[in-house]
Specification:
Elements lengths: L11 E3 L4 E7 L4 H13 L3 E5 L5 H12 L3 E5 L2 E5 L12 E2 L4 H11 L5 E5 L10 H9 L3 E3 L8 E4 L7 E3 L5 H12 L4 E5 L7 H8 L4 E4 L2 E5 L8 E3 L4 H12 L5 E8 L6 H8 L3 E10 L2 E9 L7 E3 L1 H6 L4 H7 L7 E3 L12 H11 L5 E3 L2 E4 L8 E4 L4 H11 L6 E4 L11 H8 E2 L1
Parallel strand pairs: 2-15, 3-14, 6-7, 10-11, 18-19, 22-23
Antiparallel strand pairs: 1-23, 2-24, 3-5, 4-5, 7-9, 8-9, 11-13, 12-13, 15-17, 16-17, 19-21, 20-21
Length: about 425
């Protein structure tokens, strides 16, 4: 299904629905697209990626790679990247990462090993996000990096020969892990990384797909420097974090029947499927296959008469960090409510998502308690129409569009175009599935 994105800077009015039904194939998973594009730039040969993500974040990665001398052709959702064999070019100016923390953090690992200086910057939101978590280990590997106040962007990187290190990551972050894997791939010796909690493994799977060898043992992964990469041809599976919004929309209605085709089913990302199923929603997985190490399949979602609540904490919080906004947004409609713990990371995303969720839920009439590291939202509440503020955050925009489907009146999403960061066609896609 092809749907057009909303105009820039437009507000969107979301009307209540009586059901969700239909089928949808989502743009490529953003986490995979970022990693595949960066590895393709380093590889020998021509990489072809179909169903490349349509959002602004993954476009920022391509723009930065072009700035580093990579030849990239794009026709619709198909991207062709001519690899440099690891020989990137000094950029003529600042590399603009836009709103994409993934672009900045992961690309920094590659730039740290180059023989030139570079600078990574971005929009106002990105300039507030913490970067010390990559600066510290990359400096230990031999890079020279300066940053803004408080360890925030812009990042000025003086690249050069790197050496492998053993590093215990203080923060569970797949972006940091991938940054250091990429740096380790280009360093002398072996780099060994230990995570406090296992995070998504797209960096490991992508690096293997391009021909490199890694060793994994529980929460520890190691990579040997100096390995050559080879180009690939791949169809990127649908983004499961974007799918979460449609899963939760379907969960709101007892008679919903939604089919999501070609969806990423990576076990390190599937916690959202398990959680929504645990809330009472019926989820079936069909036609599951493996491609380049990633599981892909068709998912059918059917509603149930009541929606259970629950608690999200510890490892589950880390596994569902991107999906927490939409879970919180539908929490008032559950029987027992939702409690989110151990989620301080939400404070330093594109917005302070804990504050944004609390303010907007309250604007729609919900009772909610925000804590330093999470939220408590009681169940069996009725939400009413209101104006909500996206705070320039794509996941806040999309989360409250879903919450609006069960509200008692219309909800105006201010700054709805924030959704374009991950899925420009989100609002028309959601509207096409809503039965009224």
């Amino acid at each position: 299904m092809n749907v057009a994105p909303i105009p820039a800077d437009a507000d969107v009015l979301v009307r209540p629905a009586r059901n969700i039904a239909g089928s949808l194939r989502l743009p490529g998973d953003k986490s995979i697209c970022h990693r595949y594009a960066m590895l393709a730039a380093l590889a020998d040969g021509e990489t072809r990626l179909e169903n490349y993500a349509t959002g602004a974040d993954c476009a920022s990665t391509l723009d930065c790679l072009r700035g580093l001398g990579c030849r990239i052709a794009q026709q619709g959702a198909t991207v062709t990247i001519h690899g440099s064999g690891g020989r990137l070019q000094s950029p003529a100016g600042v590399l603009d990462c836009g709103n994409s923390g993934s672009t900045m953090r992961m690309l920094a690992g590659i730039l740290a090993a180059q023989s030139f200086a570079s600078e990574l910057a971005g929009d106002d939101s990105l300039l507030r996000r913490p970067m010390e978590r990559i600066v510290t280990p990359l400096t230990r590997m031999g890079a020279t990096i300066s940053s803004g106040a408080g360890g925030r962007p812009p990042l000025r990187i003086r690249g050069g020969p790197l050496r492998g290190i053993s590093y215990r990551m203080p923060v569970a972050s797949a972006q940091v892990k991938t940054c250091l894997l990429f740096a380790g791939l280009l360093a002398a010796g072996e780099t060994v990384l230990e995570e406090p909690i296992r995070t998504r493994d797209h960096g490991e799977l992508a690096t293997r797909a391009f021909g490199a060898e890694l060793r994994q043992d529980g929460r520890t992964v190691s990579i040997r420097g100096g390995q050559e990469l080879r180009a690939v041809s791949a169809v990127v599976p649908g983004d499961i974090s974007t799918a979460a919004f449609f899963l939760c929309a379907a969960a709101l209605f007892p008679d919903s029947n939604l089919v999501l085709d070609g969806l990423l089913l990576n076990p390190t990302r599937a916690a959202i499927l398990d959680f929504v199923a645990g809330m009472g929603t019926r989820i079936s997985m069909l036609e599951v296959e493996q491609t380049h190490g990633e599981l892909v399949g068709t998912v059918r979602v059917q509603g149930s008469p009541s929606l259970k609540g629950g608690t999200i904490a510890g490892r589950l919080t880390a596994a569902m960090i991107d999906e927490l906004p939409v879970i919180a947004a539908i929490a008032p409609y559950t029987e027992s409510g939702i409690e989110i713990l151990d989620a301080a990371e939400l404070r330093v995303k594109e917005s302070d998502r804990i504050s944004a969720l609390a303010r907007n839920l309250e604007a729609m009439g919900a009772k909610v308690e925000a804590t330093a590291e999470g939220l408590r939202v009681p169940g069996r509440q009725t939400l009413h129409g209101a104006e909500v503020d996206t705070c320039g955050d794509h996941r806040i925009a999309m989360a409250f569009a879903v919450a609006a489907l069960r509200a008692s009146g219309e909800v105006r999403i201010r700054g709805a175009n924030a959704a374009s960061v991950s899925y420009p066609a989100f609002f028309p896609a959601l509207d096409s599935l809503a039965q009224r």
